[in-house]
Design brief:
453 residues; alpha/beta; D-Maltodextrin-Binding Protein, domain 2; 2 domains; three-stranded antiparallel β-sheet; 18 helices; globular
Length: 453
């Protein structure tokens, strides 16, 4: 039977830093919006560590050099998605620059909601658009081949594990583990007495929270949201097997409070040594290797995303900076985007904040910087290879009707994925069954599919 655990508060230096950062930066835009003369711009960003760093260094560098004031609003991922979608879709015009991802960029480009950035990048001699990693460019381009968002950092997914805990039990992590091996390790390393969970996985509802890792599990277990002819397969045996595996793994060997745990909570849990393993974004490694933010710095091992039926299963994502069509400060907005996603910014972060904190995964030149390679030796190569191996066209065992590894590249997926994730999160909490959750999900998927047949 699954064990029940009382919720554990996430504490420690990383939690405090994130909490303070989110409060202070979210309020920084309260003094006013952008200016029509381009002397001030408003920027909406997701509250991940790399974005927090961007907010820290902007005034003393970008604003000092250009005279352009930047007013930030930084929000947790789910809140960010709601806010940016509401503003951009309704042409609200509140932000000059907004953080979006590989899911939104092509869809919003098709809707005419974003400025294309190719012309700006091509005219900017210092930007070096050709240095951007091709998977990132492709995921952020429209059907016209133009770039509609500039990658701030790119990522795939991999398995992070605490080498000290593995060594203490005489366990060896394969370079390419299976999910069955991961489950066995989680059982062996789960230690209630020491306050250490066997694994940390996202259970927080949201198509980009819970279903980012879970969809990769579905893919490698042989499942899919839709077959190529748009037949929904949410309650198919393969989808159900993968989801039940994920839910059972969390209920039996996962972290306390799993239904409320997203990326940030797992980052803190694993970073404070409270979980033996964590499957999530490759971008987490930089924070985990920062001794000021993580108690496991220098103790983390990295393995490729676990598999079952497929050879690889890592996702493909970019958090990127886009320019809504409604901005009245396009030139100033591009100057900020160019600076924040350019080569020199990465060198600024490395030299001033630490090389492990560089927002990597977007430029080939990053992996040629000696200081970065030395600092990121444990995870740089596996991150780059995971990005290159990710296949948004064919991420599973059957042909797909739309692009996407951990999402389905259609407008309806944001609502579909979020609603099904709420049901699966309830199953993790023991409030419903996986079978009922996916039966409800199948009905929702049928509705979404009807728009594409």
């Amino acid at each position: 039977m699954p064990r029940t655990r009382s919720p554990r508060r996430w504490t420690g230096p990383l939690a405090v830093a994130l909490a303070v950062g989110l409060v202070s930066t979210a309020c920084s835009g309260a003094g006013g919006g952008s200016s029509d003369d381009g002397s001030a711009i408003t920027v909406l960003m997701v509250g991940n560590p790399q974005m927090e760093d961007l907010a820290k260094v902007t005034a003393d560098n970008f604003t000092k050099d250009t005279g352009i004031e930047v007013r930030f609003t930084i929000l947790p991922e789910n809140e960010l998605r709601d806010r940016v979608t509401q503003d951009v879709a309704t042409q609200g015009g509140q932000y000059d620059v907004a953080t979006i991802g590989a899911y939104e960029a092509p869809i919003w480009a098709q809707n005419g909601w974003l400025h294309e950035l190719s012309s700006y990048a091509d005219a900017d001699t210092g930007y070096d658009r050709g240095d951007l990693l091709e998977p990132m460019v492709a995921s952020l381009s429209g059907t016209d081949g133009k770039l509609y968002a500039a990658p701030f950092y790119g990522e795939s997914s991999f398995l992070m594990y605490n080498r000290e805990l593995f060594d203490a039990e005489g366990l060896t992590m394969p370079e390419r583990p299976t999910w069955q091996q991961v489950a066995q390790f989680a059982e062996q390393l789960d230690d209630d007495a020491a306050g250490v969970s066997g694994i940390c996985l996202r259970g927080l509802p949201g198509w980009g929270e819970l279903f980012a890792p879970l969809t990769t599990v579905v893919n490698t277990f042989g499942g899919t949201w839709f077959e190529q002819d748009w037949t929904p397969k949410v309650n198919a045996p393969e989808f159900a097997e993968a989801t039940k595996f994920y839910v059972d793994l969390l209920r039996e060997h996962g972290q306390p409070g799993a239904p409320q745990s997203g990326f940030t909570e797992c980052l803190n849990t694993f970073g404070q040594g409270k979980a033996a393993m964590w499957y999530d974004a490759t971008s987490a490694a930089g924070t985990l290797e920062d001794p000021d933010a993580s108690t496991v710095a220098g103790k983390v091992g990295y393995a490729y995303a676990p598999v079952d039926e497929t050879d690889s299963s890592g996702w493909l994502w970019a958090w990127a900076l886009a320019m809504p069509k409604t901005t009245k400060n396009a030139d100033s907005a591009w100057k900020f985007i160019s600076w924040a996603t350019g080569k020199e910014y990465e060198k600024l972060v490395g030299s001033s904040l630490g090389w492990s904190r560089v927002p990597a995964g977007k430029r080939q030149s990053t992996y040629e910087i000696a200081e970065y390679r030395q600092s990121a030796e444990a995870f740089a190569d596996i991150t780059l290879k995971s990005i290159q191996e990710a296949d948004p066209v064919s991420p599973g065992v059957q042909p797909r009707p739309a692009l996407g590894v951990q999402f389905v590249g259609i407008p309806e997926f944001a609502d579909l994925g979020t609603k099904v994730s709420q049901e699966v999160s309830a199953a993790i909490a023991g409030q419903t069954t996986v079978e009922q959750a996916l039966a409800d999900g199948q009905r929702l998927a049928e509705e979404a599919a009807s728009n594409h047949r």
